[in-house]
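Question (not urgent): is this output format expected?
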Amino acid sequence: MRLLFTTDVEQSFKDVAAGFTFDLFQKLTPPNVSVEIKRFDGCNKGDEVHLAMRVPVFNRTEEWISRVVKSGEVTEHEVYSDEWFFIDEGVKLPFFLTYWRHVHRVVQTESGGSAIIDDIEYRALWYLQPFVHLVLSGQFAARQPIYREYFRKK
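Got this back:
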């Protein structure tokens, strides 16, 4: 399955890229799931994020570990760059997910702001797929107003 969300924000792609920090990550944690951030290295290749998630519907705590497999600026002709990205992949996932790959892109827009693009590919247990899709869709849609507020021009 795939989810794709694009959020326009006011700051430049370089300012937004610099803002992908532990503070932002905390603000983005889903409100309907108790999440403890055990480790947050950052957004560079090799960095990891470790979470302990309490999943209320199943009344259990699940571990989620993701590793950044690629990151950097996208450069055309080694002169002009207008995009920053990182890709994280699931190393250890909650029982209901069998695959996770999340491409985070920040692209400069003509308005002087940028677009944050969350491009998620995942696989879930077939019998939980509709539920997982609904939950993930809601959680990523909830990020959009947080991104807009966090990256408002100051």
